[in-house]
Design goal:
Blueprint lengths: L1 H4 L5 H15 L4 E2 L6 H7 L24 E5 L7 H10 L5 E5 H6 L20 E3 L6 H16 L4 H17 L12
Parallel strand pairs: 1-2, 2-3, 3-4
Helix pairs in contact: 2-6
This protein binds iron/sulfur cluster (SF4).
Iron/sulfur cluster binds next to α5.
Length: 184
């Protein structure tokens, strides 16, 4: 990100961030990555009824080099995991991931050795979408929520500050093993 490193800090950077955020959120291109039944619902958003083109996502890219959003639609088998990671690595930065459906998010009902128990074991996930399968409206809602995240993305020195804050908050958080809830 050579250009980002050259950005000045201060008020001007805030305005550049707003502009870049608006441009980026309106021009996200998804990679084609349907793995199971959820992919049928994902394909439906490309049709005339749901019309994903309204959000600047004119077409699903068959090439990772021309895509910056991976929608993982379906359960991820152990055999597919390295392929998924390779496609993710070939996508240019900045890039985002939506885990579509309960299988991609957590393994779902496939609690066995053949299926990855959540795609976040393989790639970082920005939005988890519940449901089996989630309806096309739910996928559009997840995409709009991702647009909000993209719009507020920090750049340059602001990004470094945000990362330091997030790391400090993560280190200060209560470990999951020490959390007490209704089930304990
Ligand atoms: S969440 Fe349901 S619809 Fe989606 S891949 Fe899993 S079983 Fe299929």
């Amino acid at each position: 990100m050579g250009l980002e490193e050259k950005l000045p800090s201060g008020v001007l950077l805030g305005q550049v961030e707003q502009l870049v955020g608006l441009i980026r959120k309106a021009s996200v291109w998804p990679a084609t990555f349907g793995l199971a039944c959820c992919a049928i619902e994902m394909m439906a958003v490309g049709g005339p009824k749901y019309d994903i083109a309204r959000f600047g996502m004119e077409r699903f890219s068959a090439s990772p080099r021309q895509a910056d959003l991976m929608i993982v639609a379906g359960r991820v088998s152990q055999k597919m995991a390295p392929v998924l990671r390779q496609v993710y690595d070939q996508m240019p930065n900045p890039k985002w991931v939506i885990a579509m459906g309960v299988c991609a998010s957590s393994g779902g009902m496939f609690n066995n050795y053949a299926v990855v128990q959540g795609v976040d074991h393989v790639v970082p996930v920005d939005v988890y979408l519940p449901g089996c399968p989630p309806r096309p409206e739910m996928l559009l809602d997840a995409i709009l929520k991702l647009h909000e995240q993209i719009k507020d993305t920090k750049l340059g020195p602001h990004r470094a500050e945000a990362e330091a804050e997030a790391e400090a908050a993560a280190l200060a958080a209560t470990p999951t093993s020490e959390m007490r809830g209704l089930l304990r």
